[in-house]
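Structure first, sequence second, as always.
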């Protein structure tokens, strides 16, 4: 058994050189998507991951900023109309409530038939099979066990730890620098951590000052166009590459 990571995008919200950060995980031939920016199908089809929407067992959504969720409406419509299923969505109940009430109720509730007949309004449960993700209990999707923990960010956001195939990987999601969060992430075999300008994000200077043992297991994502992956002391993930999850040290 194994667990493999495919970066679909590695950039921040303003990146012009990269797609916004999104990660695909594979274990036992099953697939899990972490965050869902636009254009998610194009990102999948251009990646090293041999997947499309129909191949996904589920989507993990960390929070509602556009560079993490802008592709979810299209993915859910594709599932609904083309694949003929609901999208399995693991996210915190606070995130799920705002996703529909403050976002998608305005764009996904009203549907007309081919003859122009207006259909009964659709709701969140018509499109999504919600798997509530809270710090109290893990969620299971296929072979993937998903745990979460809140981060320090502008809006409610959760970091995640995901185990499958005898290995585990953690993702910080968006967060200000938080040593307690890094300790929680450190329980995984590998840690994917954002790096950005600071404030509600984590600056490179904080991460590069960590002990070498931690730096060796970190992979950086969500970097700006000004960040130089080649000169980084910590390995930065690259689009189009494949990363087997293995224990470090």
């Amino acid at each position: 058994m194994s667990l493999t990571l495919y970066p679909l995008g590695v950039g921040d919200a303003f990146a012009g050189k990269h797609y916004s950060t999104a990660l695909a995980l594979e274990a036992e031939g099953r697939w899990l998507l972490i965050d869902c920016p636009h254009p998610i199908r194009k990102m999948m089809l251009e990646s090293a991951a041999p997947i499309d929407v129909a191949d996904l067992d589920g989507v993990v959504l960390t929070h509602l900023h556009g560079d993490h969720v802008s592709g979810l409406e299209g993915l859910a419509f594709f599932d609904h109309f083309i694949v003929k299923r609901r999208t399995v969505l693991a996210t915190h109940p606070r995130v799920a409530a705002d996703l529909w009430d403050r976002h998608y109720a305005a764009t996904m509730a009203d549907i007309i038939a081919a003859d122009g007949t207006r259909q009964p309004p659709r709701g969140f449960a018509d499109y999504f099979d919600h798997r509530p993700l809270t710090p109290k209990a893990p969620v299971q999707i296929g072979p993937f066990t998903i745990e979460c923990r809140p981060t320090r960010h502008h809006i409610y956001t959760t970091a995640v730890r995901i185990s499958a195939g005898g290995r585990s990987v953690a993702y910080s999601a968006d967060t200000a620098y938080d040593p307690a969060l890094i300790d929680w992430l450190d329980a995984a075999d590998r840690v994917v951590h954002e790096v950005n300008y600071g404030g509600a994000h984590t600056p490179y200077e904080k991460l590069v000052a960590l002990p070498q043992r931690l730096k060796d297991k970190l992979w950086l994502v969500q970097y700006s166009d000004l960040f130089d992956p080649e000169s980084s002391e910590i390995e930065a993930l690259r689009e189009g590459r494949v990363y087997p999850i293995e224990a470090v040290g």
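Margin note: The longest helix spans residues 93-108.
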